[in-house]
Amino acid sequence: MAEEKATPQPIDDSLRLEAGLERALTDARPELRVSLKVAGGAPTQRYRFAFSASGDRRARCSLDCELTGRHEVARKDATLEPKQLDGLIRKIRTSKVLELPEESARFLPDTLLGILEISDGTSTFRRVFAADPEQAKTQDAVPPPELLEVADSFYSLGRTLMGKKSMRAVKP
């Protein structure tokens, strides 16, 4: 009887992660983790948005903004619909954000920073970026459009989980 050979895993982390995301579209992958954290600002203007989801569709989302007085938290037992998680995974894959080169991150104090993290339990993609468009422009650190596009998908899901109608209700 012939022994069935396992499909070799890609050596490159971005390719391995891409393959893990593709598998997550057809199989539940509880080890899958995706998150966007955006935080910073001057003391009276502090802003913090945190969204995370796992392959089993559990999600958490919170928002704190000192400038506008917004303080929101999604239900502790929030669960994404399969189409919501699949949509986010597809957006990550089609945006080609995983192909972005790693860059050294240097920002001025009080910069509003975003951290995008995607992990399949083995490989992790992590990028730090200036999340406020004006600060990014001033510091000549405008993030690639692929990164901003994926970040907007996280904001959109966060808005939905918190029951907000407008993206302006969650974005800085």
Report on the structure:
There is one protein chain. The protein is 28% helix and 24% strand. It is of the alpha+beta class and 172 residues long.
Please provide a brief summary of the model.
This protein has 172 residues and is an alpha+beta fold. It has 4 helices and 6 strands.
Task: Indicate the proportion of strand residues.
Answer: 15-25%
Helix content: 25-40%
Q: Which CATH architecture?
A: 2-Layer Sandwich
CATH class bucket: Alpha Beta
What global shape is seen? globular
> Rg, please?
17 Å
Order of strands in the sheet with most strands: 4-3-2-1-5-6
Count the beta strands: 6
**Terminal CA distance:** 61 Å
Structural class computed from helices and strand pairing:
alpha+beta
> What is the CATH H-level superfamily?
Mago nashi
The major beta sheet can be summarized as: 6 strands, antiparallel
Key terms:
172 residues; alpha+beta; 6 strands
List the helices and strands and how they pair.
Blueprint: H1 13-24, E1 33-40, E2 47-54, E3 59-65, E4 70-73, H2 82-95, E5 113-119, E6 124-130, H3 133-138, H4 145-161
Helix pairs in contact: 1-2, 2-4
